[in-house]
Amino acid sequence: MAKQALILIDIQNDYFPQGKWPLDGVEAAADKAAQVLQAFRQAGDAVIHVRHEFEGDDAPFFTPGSEGAHLHAKVLNEGEEPVVLKHFVNAFRQTNLRTLLEQRSITDVVVVGSMSHMCVDAVVRAAADLGYKVTVIHDACATRDQAFNGQVIPAAQVQGAYMAALAFGYASVVSADEFLKVQVAAA
């Protein structure tokens, strides 16, 4: 029987409007992530929070020990929910994330968080490569405008491109409402 875990990626204060690196639509995405988090808690399913800190005080955001590097109040860990501290884009790299999943006999992971084009993308691809069945809740993820070759790519296009790529070969990509309907039906 499949056992699932929710992985919340970098839903941290610096990504919110008063932070050092605000994302487009981050409040709405965090609200959706909080809904999914509540459903996992009610079902008694595993929840793992991931938090990023850069390793130097000259970091553009997520400075070690700063308020901006803390988890956002909408998705704070509770009770025994572990918080994985990472220093790289990929949450599996030099962390205990895989060990936590293995200890809980997890086969399926559900991913929410930030930034869609970086840490969400990296953890989804890594999890799929490690053999996990992956679901991404697209409206519980956030990103920001990007620039390439003198052109600004709006956040909505960045989000769409990354979610389309993940859906093509790495994950099931659904809305929070779609995911929650299936969870309620399965309960």
Automatic annotation (TrEMBL):
InterPro entries: Isochorismatase-like_dom, Isochorismatase-like_hydrls, Isochorismatase-like_sf
UniProt key word Iron: no
Classification of source organism: Bacteria, Pseudomonadati, Pseudomonadota, Gammaproteobacteria, Pseudomonadales
Keywords: Hydrolase
Protein name per UniProt: Cysteine hydrolase
Domain of life: Bacteria
Domain Isochorismatase-like: residue ranges: 5-155
Gene Ontology MF terms: hydrolase activity
Organism annotation: Pseudomonas haemolytica
SUPFAM superfamilies: Isochorismatase-like hydrolases
